[in-house]
Structure formats: C-alpha cells, structure tokens
Protein: LysR family transcriptional regulator
Amino acid sequence: MELRHLRYFVAAAELGSVHAAAEQLHISQPSISRQIHDLEEALGATLFSRSARGLTLTPVGEMFLARAKRILADVDEARVHATRMAQGLSGRLTLGFIENSTWGGLLPRVLMQFKQHAPEVDLELLPLNSSDQLAQLDGGRLDGGFVYPFGGLASHLEMRALETHDVVVALPGAWLSNMPRPRRLTDIADRDFITFPRHIYPAYFDHLQSACLALGAPLRSIQTAESETAILSLVSSGMGAAIVNSANRYRPPALVELIELDDLSIPMTLSFVHASSNPNPALRSFLAILDAERLVAPPRF
Structure:
C-alpha cells in the first residue's frame, strides 16, 4: 500500500465518482479504478458499493476514509515540518554564552533578530564560562558558543570574531573616598584582590597573572569566586578589588567603580565558535543572522 492509493481513494470517496476524482487529480480514470481495486485487494475488503449513480462507501470504507484522511494530514504536516526544519526555521539550537556578553553590544541584537526570524526554533541558552563551552562543544553538547578564546582552538572548530573588550579594575566605591583614583595597577598593588580559580580558564588565568607579574604587581588574592557576577558581588561588599571584563560596564554594580588602567591591557575578543561539521540547519540559520548583524555593526577591535 502506498500513499497514492490513499489519495486516490479519498478523492473518489469525497467526490462520489471515479470520473470526478480522475479530473481533479489529472489522472486517467482507468488508473484510479485500478489503484482502488489494488487497495481493496490489499485490505481484503470492499470499500465502495458501485452503482449507476456512482460510488457509495461501505461501512469498512467509511472507517477507512476517516483513517486515511488522518494519515494524509499527518504526512502533509510532517512534510511541512521537515521543510521548515531543513530551512533552519524549526528544530532545536543549544548555545552557550558568557553572562556579560548579553548585557549590551552585538549579542542581544543577534538573539532578538533570530527569534523574530525563526520563532519555532527551540533556542536553549546556557550561561557557561569560555572553558566549559569549549569542552561542551568538543563533546557535541552545544551547537555553538560565545566565548573569549585564549590560545589556539581545536582544528574542527570555526570562529567568528565579534567585538573586543579589555580588562578594567573593579574597586569598592567606598575605597575611593579615602584614596586617589588609581591610574596604574601598581597604585593598588598592596590591596586585596578577588580572583577566580585557575581551573575555570587556565589559559586566561595564566595570561592575566603573567601580565600583572610583568608590571611588578602580582595580585594578592584573598578570595576566589567562579564567575564575574560572584566576583563583583564580593567587590561590592568591600572585600577586595578585582580585574574584570570591561563588558561589565553594560551593567555596572551600584557599589563598584570600574576603572581603566594605563599599564594593564588584555584585549579579549568575544567570538562565536562552532564545530565546522555540525549539520544542524538551525545553526546555519543562526549564522546567517549573525553574519548579517556583523555587517550592520562590524566587529569592534
């Protein structure tokens, strides 16, 4: 039994005539008659009572008509869904992101444009640090991620540079009431710092520590926290200073001052990374939106 058998049967049943069904489907009348006969033989049942006035469904035919119409409707719906999924307009897309990257700049616009373009895509956004995103990309658990890459990427990953931020020092606002506003890291080298554990992102941790050491101002860490949100909350409480991403200026904590230093610069390029072999059509659709937005607002470096 094939789908054409069902389509021919439904047309004949609804029109009450093989001749009318043939005209509607642009198929010869003998061909439709033969297909319906083959269908009845396959079912071992008579679907129509035939008379000079036309076709009348038997009780078996009435039952089969209802089910055949449901089957054809399901097939048509599946075809539509498959087409939209192949076009990247439905399906599922799982992306990682760093929290501060969504507070301003390019990424919020890209996410908004994609949701407008493909509202049927189930978009899952996971807040993860860069190192965790790269690990999950390697494991195939993410379709893509917004990261700050330090060091080389695996050869199977593709990268799009989006915008470059730098580091700033985050100070408890209360400190500035009894100290000059620092211009260099060495001005606050004797102060306590909140840092992150090395395992969070070893490549960036080592780069930051080396840069501070080269200035003769190694960070005196008294506390660690695993996210910049947690780090800034500790800075807000007055526990210490911190070196953080300048993207935090999009959402500055009320009790923290974010200050550029003349002697410390660590450019960090927010980039979108994905496996080049990822076949997910929703990812291709997302990349098209991302590339279009990059043309509107070219990467800032």
